Amino acid sequence: MTKLHKLSGRFLGLIIASGLSATASAQMTINGAGATFPYPIYSKWFDEYAKVDPSVRFNYQSIGSGGGQKQIIAQTVDFGASDGPMSDENLAKAPGKILHIPTVAGADVVTYNLPGSPALKFDADAITGIFLGQIKKWNDPKIAALNAGASLPDQEIVVVHRSDGSGTTYIWTDYLSKISAEWKQKVGTNTSVNWPTGLGGKGNEGVAGQVKQTPGAIGYVELIYAIQNKMPYADVKNSAGKFVKPSVESITAAMATAQIPEDFRFSMTNAPGNDSYPIAGATWLLVYEQQKDAAKGKKLVEFLKWALTKGEDMAKNLDYAPLPADLRERVLKRVDEIKM
Amino acid sequence: MPIAVAPERPAVRSTIDRMAPPSGLGDKVFKWFTLAMALAVVALVFLVGWQLARGSSLAIHRFGFHFLATSTWDPVAEQFGALPFIYGTAVSSLIALIIAVPLSIATAVYLTELAPLWIRQPIVSLIEMLAAIPSVILGLWGIFVMIPWLRDHPFPFLKKIFGWTPFFSGPIYGVSMLAGGIIIAVMILPIITSVSREILRSVPNLQREAAYALGATRWEVTRIAVLSYAKKGLFGAVILGLGRALGETMAVTMVIGNTPQIRASLFAPGYTLASVIANEFTEATTDVYLQALFEIGLVLFGITILANLLAQLLLKTMGSTIKSGAVQ
Description:
Chain A is an alpha/beta fold and 340 residues long. Chain A is built from 13 helices and 12 strands. In chain A, strands 1, 2, 3, 4, 6, 7, 8, 11 and 12 form a 9-stranded mixed sheet that branches. In chain A, α12 (294-315) packs antiparallel against α13. Mean pLDDT of chain A is 88; it is low at 11-25. Chain B is built from 15 helices and 2 strands. Chain B has helices at 2-5, 8-18, 25-55, 57-63, 66-69, 83-114, 117-132, 135-152, 154-162, 177-201, 205-213, 218-247, 250-255, 273-280, 287-327, and strands spanning 73-74, 79-80. In chain B, strands 1-2 form a two-stranded antiparallel sheet. In chain B, β1 and β2 form a beta hairpin. The longest helix of chain B has 41 residues, at 287-327. The relative contact order of chain B is 0.14. The model of chain B is unreliable at 1-7 and 323-328 (pLDDT under 50). The interface between A and B is large, with 40 and 34 residues.
């Protein structure tokens, strides 16, 4: 009898186990697509969140912000992601109201190739002059006045910019448009623009490669890329007149002082405040305010809340700037308004 | 031993037995099946063209012929002109052909006509390996190895000698139209070489023997009996290479400088049709912008078809000269 009992017990265990594996394979998948810039932190979040809630799996395709916006409008994904806020024109195309959820921020840094890699400082005039093609030599008085100690050679400046459409370029041109009326009128703000001068490199690695290989070159790359590849980068004068080193802290400081409207479609370039680094921008998740699938919507909201609390604490380790505390509160409140 | 030989005949027998009676049904099915496959390829080409035209209808309507004739590419102001990209694609492909064709055909001739047997296979394998290198790897190699070398050695040399012509003047950045052409040449070299080698190998030995019998030298045999016999096929190999050159994207994007401008100097940066699509498609958010990129695709599609048609035409006129050449 006991033997039989044991056997049936084993059977029961087997049945339970197979039942469990069935629920595991029927776990919910939430699909997202969009920006490439936050991809490393997002995949870290999804990995960690799998431990918090094993019943839901996230599938994120980093196809670019343009693709992310298109797919959320077409409702082929459960959430989109973008490095730039959506335009009114695109928002109007969506079948429902789309919420912008800022997650983390990053910055563009000015990197250069000069003999001895001296530490340099730039201000608005110098940067716009160089990128408009008006300052042509490294020993130009506009650069020399800011860098009294550094030895600047009588060398041509070779401008390198991104050739691919990117959030990095969006932040860069957004900054230039804010500090220079001439730039705003001649070039403007976008993920790719009609550059007045310079060579185009594909991706951060393309720009970094060309800057490293070309004596006298200057370009902009993401702060994370510059940190991880140990490239020299310059301090930039902010709107308060202070020279600020780009860092996770100075980006968060800029986000804390930036004007942020109710719909969170904000630009944080040239933010006020002594500690703000001026060439920075946030990245957003895009979700519908009215979720179609209640079960999925509930899981998505739970994830967003986790990301904005626990997830934010992981950002620094990956060199992303987390949201400042009061902005976090505001965003969390908005996430609560998502309807199922 | 005889036991091993014995089953051979029954095996043949059974194969014949198993073959269907000559009803002709198998032949018909085979014919329709292959026809359907061939038509599917044709349909695919049309579908691609149609889809591209549909995707760009707004841009075609808005810019009309200006799209092909103007050179401003401004996504902010939504002004789009494709001329610098068309120019860049044409020039970089031309440079690639000028470099790759003599190199590939000479390699193929050496491998089929002159090289000792033991050396042929290793070289063939190496060339095929070159074809297997992913485009993006070649591009990275281009940025970090080829460009600095070109900038420091061959380019200044070219400038010193040919600097008086507009083609080799102006500042040297390294990334340039010429660098783009060179990297494409590296990429199309394997395909032209492999196809040329197959074609030269298919030249019947009788041709060579006949030429030798007439007292021709090795060079004369190669020139008269082999190359002129294989002319048409070799031309086809070059066209295959051109097709690849026109559409080459990743590696070119990394070394050409991505600047939409038309400059005579080959040291100046340029831009190609395929590169601008690869660069800007992912982040294009407005309708007109996206449509303009679709239209770039349509233009590239058109150029590829045009190049192939021209090649067919050339081949036809060449066909008649070959015949008259053979009579001589």
